[in-house]
Design goal:
Structural class: alpha+beta
Shape: globular
Largest sheet: 3 strands, antiparallel
Strand order of the largest sheet: 1-2-3
Distance between the termini: 18 Å
Strand content: 15-25%
Oligomer: single chain
Number of strands: 3
Number of helices: 1
């Protein structure tokens, strides 16, 4: 389930990728803002990165398939 309050047209993308380090993927997308992301590792093993710059909220979720 996905919810994005207040956004008329939220952008949601799904991508399959083979990654050694999820940090590298997010850093490649956001470069200088990478250090502003909050990283959480959930008990399920899911890794979530979140960053709100005041204009847009970025959320990356990684699960092992």
């Amino acid at each position: 389930m996905s919810c994005c309050a207040g956004a008329a047209h939220p952008q949601t993308f799904f991508e399959d990728a083979e990654l050694e380090r999820t940090d590298d993927f997010v850093r490649a997308k956001h470069g200088k803002d990478f250090e502003k992301f909050i990283k959480e590792v959930l008990p399920s093993g899911q890794v979530v990165y979140t960053y709100d710059n005041g204009t847009a909220t970025y959320i990356y979720e990684f699960i092992e398939l």
